Recover the amino acids of this structure.
């Protein structure tokens, strides 16, 4: 099992009481609080934190994160964040969410976003273009 700092979302060890990356206190968290904090991190001002949070949410398949990930795609313009969000949506929500998110991205296509969409299509094994 991996452990993450609930402030910067870098990897920490199980026994860390203080994050070695940002110094945040790790003693008062767990369970639901962890996922809630992770979802909230999608609105962090630091793009790297947002991307880390999106990746962890995808690994943990946090269904509750889907609305926040979709709103991230609606409001964000950073192609790296958009790429992380679409990949996370496709891993958590599957095909239907992927098509919906792809529609939301129509006006925000870039090389990085295109590549992320291709990654999603091969992850979902969608070879036909819809
Ligand atoms: Zn930290």
């Amino acid at each position: 099992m991996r452990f993450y700092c609930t402030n910067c979302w870098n990897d920490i060890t199980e026994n860390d009481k203080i994050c070695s990356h940002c110094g945040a206190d790790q003693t008062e968290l767990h369970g639901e609080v962890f996922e809630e904090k992770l979802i909230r991190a999608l609105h962090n001002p630091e793009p790297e934190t947002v991307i880390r949070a999106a990746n962890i949410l995808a690994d943990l398949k946090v269904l509750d994160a889907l609305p926040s990930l979709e709103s991230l795609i609606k409001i964000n313009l950073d192609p790296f964040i958009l790429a992380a969000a679409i990949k996370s949506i496709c891993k958590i929500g599957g095909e239907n969410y992927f098509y919906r998110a792809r529609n939301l991205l129509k006006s925000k296509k870039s090389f990085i976003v295109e590549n992320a969409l291709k990654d999603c299509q091969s992850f979902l094994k969608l070879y036909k273009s819809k």
